[in-house]
Design brief:
6 helices, globular, binds iron/sulfur cluster, four-stranded parallel β-sheet, Rossmann fold, about 130 residues
Length: about 130
């Protein structure tokens, strides 16, 4: 498999949790809209299979993880797969600036949910530029 020098940005899976959805939306915006030439994403579920192709792809690669809760599934599993986590983005760090707001549901974000996701996406973009 070809080594990519793009920063890998990996959200937690967070299925069934609104902050997991915020993490995924933020990563998709950063990778697909804000920084498509410098970043890419990888499916966390694929990383945890631990197969040889994953190890080859992840070994030594520079990664930013985005987690929806303190269990930090993305960060832990990216490290286990051989990726180098240079930044752990925590959705909760941004959410705390939005006290009293409703962010939507596990399947659909509210306007405030998208505001948080956009703010996190901008932070991710900034980190990608700093890293490269
Ligand atoms: S970090 Fe939290 S929200 Fe994300 S996948 Fe793990 S348990 Fe779910």
């Amino acid at each position: 498999m070809q080594m990519s020098n793009k920063v890998k940005v990996v959200p937690c899976s967070g299925i069934g949790k609104v902050f997991g959805l915020v993490a995924r939306e933020a990563v998709l915006k950063a990778v697909l809209e804000l920084c498509p030439e410098k970043s890419e994403t990888v499916c966390l579920a694929y990383l945890v299979t631990g197969d040889e192709e994953v190890k080859e792809m992840m070994s030594g690669s520079v990664c930013i993880t985005v987690d929806g809760c303190p269990k930090m599934c993305a960060s832990k599993n990216v490290s286990l797969s051989g990726g180098i986590v240079v930044d752990e983005v925590k959705v909760l760090d941004t959410v705390k600036d939005y006290k009293g707001k409703k962010f939507g549901s596990a399947t659909e974000l509210s306007d405030d949910g998208y505001l948080v996701a956009d703010e996190i996406a901008a932070k991710i973009e900034q980190r990608i530029h700093e890293i490269l």
